[in-house]
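Good morning,

Attaching, inline, the backbone tokens for the sequence recovery test we're adding to the shared suite. The designed sequence is right after.
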């Protein structure tokens, strides 16, 4: 029997005995054919995550014993490492990756943000000719690198991403970067649970707020009554009841089951990044979590953002960054020679955090700040018009405290012909190049009337016509830092701050536009696009060579990080001369956002929300021909 088959048998035996994993020793793990390295996780050493360099790589997917919580568990890993090894490539090289699947089920790797042929993209059943990597087999990925920057890779099979199959990619440029630094660190943020992800998903289906530990209490009610009065409090509570949502539905899965990791280390131990006096450090920050938005800051140290999703942007200095799932940011920091600093990444629900330390000496540490107060979703997050300027993370007023008028009845809202409008071509081939952008909070903003010939029609869902959003006029809110970050006294990065370092003045105007509504039923935990889940949806069919404008309207009360495979998304930020280029775009609750896409990659592509437990429904297949 081959060694691979022998390992597979041992792996399968281990899976049937998972209930015995608690207290598993290194010797026990080795005896069962498991990589034991994960049991050493949490050493806090900067070199704990290996880096592989070159043009050809051999990667093995297997089970690994880990312990992040005090109880031993099992992870899905690459070469026995969690996170997976950082892959260091060079722009212009032809990369070969031999991926061997030692798991008892089919697996895959998707190279997130990498521009490559569809057959190499790694999404089973969608990437051209790719059905996944069966147990015991090796698949050879091969492609040429036409970009540089910080990216990542992860499984696109089942819930393997949640169990640890993810890692960072750094592509060194052929030409020097437009900034200087003395050393760089990859900072991978992720969420770990000892629970079986299938059990997590089953609980969410039965009770969508199962993991929410920050629901409103009687004390909150009494505070509202005292501050707002009976009528306003009653109307507000009635409204949220009609929407079947809570003002604190910020994250589906929280620290009630998650342990948040930084480079594979738990908050109890923390990752450590040493530096020398007077060094300038480049931090390559990757949100590789399954379900968690992280708000990252370094108290006492400002961050200069120089790249977003691997693409250079005009430098902007901030104190805090929200990273949606799958986003990456490169930031420069210049620590003082004799001071340690805490990298503090709290989850959007303020239930927990990941942390690390930049330090000039191993014995020198920094205090860990307290979690911020849990925020309430407000009028802005319901898509209601906002009449107050919000610039640089400061809102002129807290909209969550405003009394709202009677909630609107959306039960009769229907798409105009009951069809999936995601494939409608815009009429008249309108020229958008001369459109003026009104200012909002001092920043130019797209005018919704530029992109729509009439009122927005809310998409019905297969679970009934009701959707969560209340407004008929969802707003572009590019300079809104988002719930929990408004008016917090810190300079927070927003999409309005992002300007491409290269000119987009000569980029062509869109040939047509597509409007996609993000829809769902929180009560039943069902997610969809245009009211249709992926299993029931027709593919989006795009023409090779055309240029599209994608309009996303978020009809739900949650943030959705939308990821288009194989093609860039040029975010319409209000300045057509410097459209920032991204691979993942956060669509805030009750808002709209738009970007342009050059359809320059033939084949099958995935297009989906990157929240893992939303992905089953909030997903489309794109076919370019």
């Amino acid at each position: 029997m081959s060694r691979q088959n022998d390992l597979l048998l041992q792996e399968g035996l281990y899976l049937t005995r998972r209930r015995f994993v608690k207290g598993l020793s290194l010797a026990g793990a080795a005896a069962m054919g498991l990589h034991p390295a994960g049991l050493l996780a949490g050493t806090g050493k900067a070199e704990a995550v290996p880096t592989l360099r070159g043009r050809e790589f051999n990667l093995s997917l297997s089970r690994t014993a880990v312990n992040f919580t005090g109880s031993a568990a099992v992870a899905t890993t690459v070469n026995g490492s969690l996170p997976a090894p950082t892959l260091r490539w060079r722009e212009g090289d032809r990369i070969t990756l031999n991926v061997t699947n030692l798991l008892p089920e089919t697996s895959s790797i998707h190279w997130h943000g990498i521009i490559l042929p569809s057959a190499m993209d790694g999404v089973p059943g969608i990437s051209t000719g790719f059905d996944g990597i069966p147990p015991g087999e090796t698949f050879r990925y091969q492609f040429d690198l036409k970009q540089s920057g910080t990216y990542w890779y992860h499984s696109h099979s089942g819930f393997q991403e949640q169990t640890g199959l993810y890692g960072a990619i750094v592509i060194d440029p052929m030409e020097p970067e437009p900034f200087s630094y003395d050393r760089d660190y990859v900072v991978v943020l992720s969420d770990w649970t000892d629970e079986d992800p299938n059990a997590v998903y089953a609980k969410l289906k039965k009770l969508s707020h199962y993991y929410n530990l920050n629901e409103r209490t009687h004390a909150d009610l009494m505070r509202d009554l005292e501050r707002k009065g009976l009528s306003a409090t009653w109307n507000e509570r009635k409204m949220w009841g009609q929407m079947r949502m809570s003002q604190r539905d910020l994250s589906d899965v929280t620290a009630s089951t998650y342990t948040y990791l930084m480079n594979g280390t738990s908050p109890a131990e923390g990752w450590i990044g040493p530096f020398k006096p007077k060094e300038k450090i480049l931090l390559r920050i990757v949100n590789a979590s399954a379900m968690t938005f992280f708000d990252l800051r370094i108290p006492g140290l400002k961050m200069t953002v120089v790249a977003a999703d691997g693409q250079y942007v005009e430098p902007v200095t901030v104190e805090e960054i929200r990273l949606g799932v799958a986003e990456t940011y490169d930031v420069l920091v210049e620590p003082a020679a004799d001071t340690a600093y805490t990298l503090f990444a709290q989850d959007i629900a303020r239930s927990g955090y990941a942390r690390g330390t930049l330090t000039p000496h191993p014995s020198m540490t920094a205090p860990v700040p307290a979690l911020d107060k849990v925020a309430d979703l407000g009028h802005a997050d319901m898509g209601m018009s906002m009449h107050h300027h919000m610039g640089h993370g400061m809102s002129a007023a807290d909209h969550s405290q405003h009394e709202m008028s009677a909630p609107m009845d959306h039960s009769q809202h229907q798409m105009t012909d009951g069809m999936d409008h995601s494939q409608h071509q815009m009429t008249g081939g309108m020229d958008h190049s001369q459109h003026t952008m009104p200012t909002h909070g001092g920043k130019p903003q797209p005018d919704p009337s530029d992109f729509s010939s009439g009122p927005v029609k809310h998409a019905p869902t297969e679970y009934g016509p009701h959707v969560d959003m209340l407004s008929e006029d969802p707003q572009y809110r590019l300079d809104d830092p988002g719930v929990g970050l408004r008016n917090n006294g810190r300079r927070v990065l927003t999409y309005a701050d992002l300007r491409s370092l290269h000119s987009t003045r000569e980029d062509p105007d869109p040939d047509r536009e597509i409007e996609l509504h993000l829809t769902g039923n929180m009560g039943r935990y069902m997610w969809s696009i245009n009211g249709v889940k992926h299993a029931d949806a027709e593919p989006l069919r795009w023409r090779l060579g055309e240029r599209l404008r994608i309009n996303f309207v978020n009809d739900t009360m949650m943030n959705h990080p939308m990821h288009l495979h194989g093609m860039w998304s040029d975010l319409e930020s209000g300045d057509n001369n410097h459209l920032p280029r991204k691979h993942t775009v956060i669509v805030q609750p009750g808002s709209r956002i738009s970007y342009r896409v050059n359809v320059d990659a033939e084949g099958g592509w995935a297009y989906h929300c990157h929240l893992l437990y939303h992905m089953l429904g909030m997903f489309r297949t794109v076919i370019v021909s």
